[in-house]
User: What shape does this take?
Amino acid sequence: MIPDTLKTTVTNSGIVAVLVIDDAANAVPLAHALLAGGVNVMELTLRTDAAIDSLKAIKAEVPEMVAGIGTVLTPAQVKLAHDAGAAFAVAPGFNPRVVGAAKEAGLPFAPGVCTPSDIEGALEFGCNVLKFFPAETTGGLAHLKNIAAPYQHLGLSYIPLGGVNSTNLPTYLGTPLVAAVGGSWLAKRDVIAAQDWTTITDNAREARDIITTARA
Assistant: This one.
């Protein structure tokens, strides 16, 4: 369900900034701060009412940023993300109704998985990129390698999120199973609210340097 061009963009980035925005007025400067540090893919989570307006602002003013919507829990939210022009959508778990709605809408979608049953459910809908969540508390990379092994011949890619940080980032990027990681530490909610764009750029630049070195 993730087109090859989008999958390539995400893989080349190596990281997806996962964000909680309380004020849509911060969306555009946030996108610029991430781009300045070398991060060009972001997921705006539907944990606040500002997510959709933030997406629209970024699409209009920062078109070079690949912006998607996360924490998509219902078919209604799938429609919301699609109508707002999200490049992709992500869920923390696997809900057949939600994945089915995304497929019907033509919205690139990555459901969350942490078991073989989750993976097989996602395969029923043609999903080719899966969010591995929560990554660290379910066993980290060792667990991912184990649950992914029976399906490796299918060419699935994974985006680990949950406990991933600048310290263990190189470990996750050390396997071809991982297209990119979810970077919730790049721009934390309080840092965005404080409009500390310098710190966000510095975090993004540090992550970019780590990714470049890990994939060299």
About this structure: The two ends are 29 Å apart (CA to CA). The chain has one domain: 4-214. The chain has a mean pLDDT of 97.
